[in-house]
Structure formats: C-alpha cells, structure tokens
Design goal:
By secondary structure, chain A is mostly helical. Chain A is 70% helix and 0% strand. Chain B has a two-stranded antiparallel sheet. Classes of the chains: A mainly alpha, B mainly alpha, C alpha/beta.
Chain lengths: 291, 300, 343
C-alpha cells in the first residue's frame, strides 16, 4: 500500500530526504567524506590557521604538534593550511578534467553509436589511436610541447580524456538503439538529435556516471603526479602532488611533509570511489569494472 | 590494426610540429647562432614539405630508425634499446605480484560475497586505488628502504638476483595500484559465472564446491580478465613512468621524464611511438590468448 | 499419528517394495529482509521403484523448488529447508553431510534441467563434462572415462560420437545438447532421475524425441523418474502417477488414467478444462483469480478463493492429503461436490 503523491505537491526537501534514505551505505559515507573535504576547501580562507604561502624559517621542519597540526615544511610553511588550500586546486582541476570531457565524450560516442556508418568508423579509429597511448604518457608528451602549467594540463586533458566516455556511451547506444521505444520515436518522425539526447541519453549515461567517479580519482592522481614530476602546477602553489615532491628530499628527517598530504589525497580518492560504488548500487547495476 | 599503428606514428610525428617556436632552437636552449640552426634544419631535412618528412620518418621507423637525439648525440633507437630491459623487468615483476595478489583476494571476495570479508576487500581496494604511486613509492622507500634497510631505494642493480631485490619495492608500488582494478573485475566475472545455470548443473552432478570454484568458476572468469589486464596495460605503463622516476630506475619511463625536462623532442617522439606500440602489441597478444581459451570466438 | 502418516501406510505398493523416494512433509522457505516466502508448504510424495511420477502445476506452484530441495541444491541463505524428511534408499537426505550428499547427487540421484543451452559450461568440451562425474566419483582413468562417455553418447542417440566428443556446446543444437545433458546424468547409473521441464525449451518436434528417449532409457535401466512440467500433455504421455501442485502444496495424487478421467480436486478440474485438445471447439475455461502470494501464510486451502465449490470450512481447515480411492489422494475437503469431470 503506497500513498500516491504528485510530484508538484512534495517539498524539495522531502524529496531529497526520501532519495537519500534509499542510498546504500557506501554512498552515504563517500558523500560524507567528499562533502566534508569540499566544504573544508571552500572554507579554507576561514579555517586555515596560516597563510599557505607564509614562510617562517624559525619554524621550519617542525613535526606535527598543536600549533602546526600537520607540521611545517622546509620553508616553514604550515602544511595543514597548505593542504586546505590544496583542496581547492586539486578538487577543482579534478572536477573539470572529469566532467567537461564527459559531456562531449558521451555526446560524440552516443552520436557515433546511433548513426553508425562512416561517422562511427572515423570516431572508432580516432578512439583506437588515442587509446593506444598510455594516458599519462600522452599527457606528458602534450605538455612537453605546450609547456608545463595548469592551463596546459586542461588543454591536454580536454584533448584526450573524452575517449573513454565516448567508448562507453557508444557501446550502450549500440544496444539501446534497437529497443522498441527508440524505434517508436523514429516511427513518430522525431529528429535524430531529439531522439539521441532526450530519449536515449538518459538511459545510457549510467555507466558513464559511475565511471566518472573513478575517472575523478584518476585525474586527481594524474594532476598530482604531473605536479610531482614538475610538469603540472608550479610552485609555490599548494598542490598536493607538488607538496609531496617538495618533501622528497627530506623524506628521512621530515617524513610528514610528503606523507600527510598524501593521506589527504588517499582520503579524497577513497571517498570518491565510495560514491562511485554507491552510485553503481543505487542504479541497480552489478559492479562495473573500475576501468 | 595497421591503421592504428599508422595513426600512432602520425600523431607522434605531428606532435612535434605543434611546438610553439622552433623545436631546434628550444632543444639547443637558444644558445646557437642562426647559421647553426639552419644547418641542423637542413641536415634533418626539416625544410622539406611536411608529407615528405612524415613518409621518411615512417620509412625509417619501420626499419628501426627513430631519428637522432641532438642533445645526447645518439640514435634514438639505441637510447631506447638500452633502457628497455629495466622497464621490461619492472613490468613483468609488477604484473606477477599483481596476479599473485589478485587471485586469492578475488576468490575470497566472490565466494564470500556480501559478507564482512568481501566488504573489507572492496574498501581496501578503493583505498589502494586512491594511493598515488609516487606517494606510495616514497612511503615504501621510507619504511622498507631507509628505516628498515631491507631493500635498496634506487637503481637497478647488476645481475638477475640484484635486479629482483632492487625492483621489489617499485613493483610492489605498481601492484598496490593495479590490484584493486583486477580484483574488482575478476570478482565481478566470477559472480557472473556463479549464477549461471551450468554451475547449478555441476552441483547437481555432485561435484565439490571447491572443484566447482576452481575448475569451472575461476577458469571461466579468467577469460574476460585477460581482456581487462590487456586494457589496463596503459595504466601499468603510466605507473611505471612515475615509479621509475621515484626509484631512479634506468628504464623507458625515467627516460621520458628526462627527455621532457631537456626538451629532447626526437626522444620524446620515439618514446611515444614505442609506448603506443607496446600497448598495441599487448592487446594483440590478449586477443590471440582469448582465442586459445574461449573457442566461441571462432564462431562463423 | 498424523493423517499423512496413516495415509502412507495405506498406500498400495508394488509387491513389497518401499518407495524409492519418500518425501514427508517437506517445508522450504526463502527468507529476505522484507518477507518469507514458503515455496513448499509441507509436501509429501512417494516415488515407487522403476515408475514415473509426473508433477504438474503452474509457475510458482513449487514443483521446481521441490526437486531442488530434494537434491539440496538451493543456496542456503536465502533458502532454508525448514522441516520434513526426504528418504532415499534408506537414508534421510536432509541429514547427510555435504560430502555424502554430493556423492548421492553424483551417482544414484540425478537431475536434468530445463535449458540445455545453458546447462553446459561453454568453454569446456562436451565430452569432458560428461566424463567429469565418472572421473570424480568413480575414479575412472581418462581413457576408461572417455570410452564410457562415448557409450553414453551412443545410448542417447548422438550419431558418430567419436567425432563429436570434443565439440564445444555452441556447436550443437538444443535437442542434441539436451541429449548430452541426459548422457551426463546417466553417467552415474542413477536409480532416480529428476527432470525439471526437460522439453520446455525445445522445439515441439524435438520434444517428442527427447521424451521418447527418456522413457526408453527408463525401461532399459529400470530407473525411476520424476518429470516436472506445466504441460499436461507431456505428463499424460510419460507418467504412471501424477501429482498436482498448487501454491507450494500437493493437491492431488493419482494414477494417470484416474486423474484425467475422474479428478478429485477442483484445481485439477480447472487445469484440465483450460487445456486445449484436438476436439476443443468451445471457448477454453480459465480459472478466475490469481494464485495466492506465497509470503502470506494462510490457514485453509490456498485454492479456496478461486474455487467454485468452496465453502466456509475450506478457508479455515488446514490442508492435508487424504486417500480417497485406491492410490488416489486429494487435498480437497469436499471432492464429492465435483461430480463427473468437466461438469
């Protein structure tokens, strides 16, 4: 026995809380972790005890204590504050490098799968070639041409990262386009664009959305990895990977410089993975492979 | 497939064309007169039309000549060849450790689905997946290399046994990142198989659960896992680049990083081709292996 | 003594044989977080040696679950055998340890399933799957097992088995695969074969062949058979005794002729009336209503809601199988209300 309510008569807050009640545990925990981190990043100017760029040589290489919860680095900068500000950098880059390519990647893949023919063949060939290069290698090569820096990371990733989404969307579209409701829409004379985007797409995006969470993690790892190599975010910006690189020379005497930012990274990544896992469950799908 | 190879070479070739400014000048770090630069241009045939340059690049590449590194004054192929061994060893070792970790973890997770062990393995996998290889490498280095002194922290060593000792920490680092992916997909494949009719039939035949698990479920589930492993070769190589850098291993990955630092474009170009070829070859091998293991592919 | 126990004592048996399979009061449940479904609610059934018992019923009647419960094939959460006994060759199967049960399954008590296309491991050669049981349970060497496997394929009517022994399942048609499945089952020399809808997934022409094969094998080996089907024609053709199941219970058990000529349960009457046969010219009757939800345990006859002969007692009195006439038992409280078949 269920009460039947029309959508318009339910408060948004009620609908949200009803939806959240259905969330599997992993989704709740993951959302909590990611949410906390994001909020901390947004509030960084307010809660950071020190300016992330402020150097205090009298307090260099200090292990974690009450004044400096995560210790200080070799230039006397408070690591906790830097980590907080680092959230803004890493999460923002991670977010944009994941979801922007997803948009046109899914669109391209869906279109290729729907139309087939030479368009599909061309897209497939491009996909094959792009995916023949290991992702990091390709980005590094592009950065060697364009030069290091955040701007160029965006350019490089936007050039390349759409491929996996295109592949996922295309595969799903190939299955979907033979389904009856699509055939019905075509019989009704709807234009292809409308069919693809309003009819088929909502049913196709699930696997891409689940994948995007893993992609988010991978992109954070990518950005921090590139920064670690010196190709990404340039010092003195408080990016996690760059911070880990800076601590490398002091790994023995001051292990906290490299170790602690990494822990935050792992925490963020785990939270995102939990969200992905929870979403997969919520969509009623069997566990998809992470990649 | 030939098309992919062609495309890969084309991309690698064209990439250098996009360098803002003159690549030769950049490589020489601007410390050269105009005459020298022009002379090098002429010697490398860079004043010819583009398609001609590409064709000769392709022709040379097929014969194993990937050009010359101006900075190192040596043929790219030779430079690559001498660093190939360390990378190959690292990749092989890392794959081995990954497989050794994956099999039992996936087996346990699948056979005890939804019970605490399964959840622990899955969450553990997420944490492992989120660990950046460069960070993990440093951590392992700190713990087992510096503090405990069990393993050396840099270099490749001489001789087979020393190779293994030197490459253990780096391979472990890669494995920690790669294992969760494989466990996830093997577990998933096993669960798929476990719900199949023929497994119930096998039980009705009176076979023990152990036999069913090993001979039917695992064997069938490993088949799609071959594909997953092959598809993830790209990530394996990416991880190798970082790990080689962190542990100072003289392989292709650290070569790439150095070449980028020096703007050694011929080397970068050559490496791009080499890496891509590796991926293509591995995928090809996986397809062949698939045919051997699952005869259904030969239908029609 | 319960009524059922009394009834069992009075059931006529061939010569002095105890029944090969004696299911007593089997109760099988499926537990989930929201509900408990009782798929078999106290099922009792006997299979005499060398005879075929047909079990007929619609989807959800519990007939497939019954077979799987006998073999203890159901995964233990969420399924649970909550009560009853299953006596086979002098032992209660429900008390056996895992290994012993596996031994029984591999040899004396075999089962074949509905879909031959998915019953075999797609990446193993067919021959290997047939001989697997021989190697595991009888310790036969590779060569001896292969010989026996070839014999079995011959027996089930596969032509030139030597050239086909190493084929893969995708190379064979549905009918041939089902023969292979039967060969696999016969490998253990069973005294009882459970067949769960063995022909449902096959073409009509092949169905007859497979049924004929089963009957032939049975005659040759003197094994008993339990044939489950929703198709009355299949049951009529092959069975000596028929059991009608509904909502997890056995509603009627009778020799095949008696069941068709004089059913003693309203559900059976309804089933027969809704089955087309060659002379049907009138509209087929359907039984009004729906089968009850198996998660709601009710007292009384589960068919009472849809039964045109039902009265108040039917809803209140628990259902038991009682013998009416020689070898013919019914769970109906008022079989006299039925009259002649088709009335």
């Amino acid at each position: 026995m269920s009460t039947y309510t029309t959508a318009s008569s339910t408060l948004l807050s009620t609908r949200i809380s009803r939806e959240m009640a259905l969330w599997p545990l992993s989704l709740k925990i993951g959302f909590g972790i990611v949410g906390t981190i994001v909020v901390a990043g947004i509030l960084a100017p307010v809660i950071a005890p020190y300016d992330p760029f402020f150097q205090d040589f009298t307090a260099a290489l200090v292990p974690p204590n009450l004044e400096h919860p995560l210790g200080t680095d070799m230039l006397g900068r408070d690591i906790f504050s830097r980590v907080l500000y680092g959230i803004r950098i890493d999460m923002q880059i991670g977010f944009l490098t994941t979801y922007v390519p997803m948009i046109y990647g899914v669109a391209l893949g869906a279109a290729a799968g729907y139309f087939g023919g030479w368009f599909d063949t061309v897209v497939m060939r491009v996909l094959d070639i792009a995916m023949a290069f290991p992702f990091l290698v390709l980005i590094i090569v592009i950065l060697s041409i364009l030069g290091p820096g955040v701007q160029n990371i965006y350019i490089a990733v936007f050039l390349v990262a759409w491929t996996m989404y295109a592949r996922l969307a295309r595969a799903e579209m190939l299955v979907e386009r033979n389904k009856d409701y699509i055939l019905a829409a075509r019989a009704l004379g709807y234009g292809s664009g409308r069919i693809i985007f309003r009819h088929a797409l909502p049913n196709i995006v699930n696997s891409s959305i689940v994948f995007s969470m893993a992609d988010f993690v991978l992109n954070i790892l990518l950005v921090s990895g590139l920064s670690f190599l010196g190709l990404g975010v340039q010092p003195p910006a408080p990016e996690w990977g760059a911070m880990i690189a800076e601590g490398r020379d002091f790994i023995f005497q001051a292990w906290w410089i490299s170790t602690l930012p990494g822990l935050v990274l792992v925490l963020a990544g785990t939270g995102l993975s939990l969200v992905g896992d929870g979403l997969a469950q919520r969509f009623g799908q069997r566990q998809q492979a992470l990649l | 497939m030939a098309l992919v190879v062609l495309g890969v070479t084309l991309v690698a070739f064209l990439s250098v064309q996009f360098v803002p400014g003159d690549p030769i000048r950049i490589m020489l770090h601007g410390r050269a007169t105009d005459e020298v630069v022009a002379a090098i241009h002429a010697r490398l045939g860079m004043d010819r039309p583009l398609y001609e340059q590409f064709l000769s690049f392709l022709w040379n590449a097929v014969q194993g000549d990937l050009g010359e590194s101006i900075i190192q004054q040596a043929p790219v192929t030779a430079i690559v060849a001498e660093r190939l061994e360390a990378s190959a060893f690292l990749l092989g070792y890392a794959t081995l450790i990954t497989v050794v970790f994956t099999l039992p973890l996936a087996l346990v997770a699948a056979s005890r689905k939804d019970r605490p062990v399964d959840h622990v393995i899955r969450v553990g996998g997420m944490i492992g997946f989120a660990m950046p290889p460069f960070w993990m490498g440093l951590l392992l280095m700190l713990l087992f290399g510096l503090t405990l002194g069990w393993f050396p922290i840099a270099g490749y060593g001489k001789g087979f046994f020393r190779h293994i000792v030197h490459l253990t920490l780096p391979s472990l680092t890669i494995a920690i990142f790669l294992t969760p992916i494989l466990v996830q997909s093997l577990r998933s494949a096993m669960l798929d198989v476990m719900t199949a009719d023929y497994i119930e039939v096998a039980r009705a035949k009176g076979l023990s659960e152990r036999r069913i698990l090993m001979k039917h479920v695992l064997r069938n589930a490993l088949i799609p896992t071959i594909t997953v492993l092959a598809v993830n070769i790209g990530w394996l190589l990416s991880g190798a680049v970082i790990v080689e850098y962190v542990f100072s291993i003289p392989g292709l990955g650290s070569l790439l990083v150095r070449a980028v630092g020096f703007r050694d474009y011929p080397v970068i170009q050559g490496l791009a081709v080499v890496f891509a070829m590796l991926v293509v070859i591995v995928n090809l091998l996986a397809d062949l292996a698939y045919i051997l293991v699952d005869r259904r592919v030969l239908r029609r | 003594m319960t009524v059922t126990a009394l009834m069992q004592d009075e059931t006529p048996r061939a010569a002095t044989d105890a029944p090969l399979l004696d299911v007593r009061g089997l109760v099988t449940e499926f537990r989930s977080r929201s509900a408990t479904v009782v798929a078999n609610a106290s099922v009792s059934l006997q299979v005499p040696r060398g005879r075929t018992v047909g079990i007929v019923g619609e989807s959800g009647s519990g007939k497939s679950v019954l077979c799987r419960s006998i073999l203890r094939l159901l995964p233990s959460p969420p399924a649970r055998i909550a009560g009853g006994e299953v006596w086979f060759e002098g032992r209660d199967l429900l008390t056996l340890g895992v290994r012993e049960m596996a031994q029984v399954r591999g040899t004396r008590l075999r089962m074949i399933f509905q879909n031959p296309m998915t019953s075999l491991n797609p990446v193993w050669p067919i021959g290997d799957q047939i001989t697997e049981g021989l190697r595991v349970h009888y310790g036969l060497s590779g060569h001896a097992a292969r010989q026996r496997g070839l014999e079995l394929l011959q027996q089930v009517g596969i032509p030139s088995p030597e050239s086909r022994f190493d084929d893969y399942p995708f190379q064979w048609s549905g009918g041939m695969l089902q023969r292979a499945v039967i060969a696999m089952a016969m490998a253990g020399e069973p005294s009882l074969l459970l067949a769960d809808e063995p022909t449902t997934a096959l073409d009509v022409t092949i169905q007859d062949q497979i049924l004929a094969l089963l009957v032939d094998l049975q005659e040759r080996t003197q094994m008993a058979m339990v044939l489950v089907s929703h198709d009355l024609a299949v049951i009529a053709e092959t069975s000596d005794i028929v059991a009608v199941m509904y909502a997890g219970r056995v509603m009627e058990v009778a020799p095949v002729k008696a069941l068709f000529e004089q059913p003693l349960h309203p559900y059976t009457v309804g089933l027969l009336a809704s089955t087309p046969h060659a002379e049907t010219t009138d509209r087929l009757e359907s039984i009004p209503g729906q089968p009850p939800s198996l998660s709601q345990r009710t007292v009384g006859c589960p068919f009472a809601e849809r039964c045109r002969f039902a009265s108040k007692d039917c809803h209140n009195t628990p259902v038991t199988l009682r013998e009416m006439v020689d070898g013919h038992a019914s769970a109906c409280l008022f079989p006299e209300r039925i009259g002649r078949a088709g009335a």
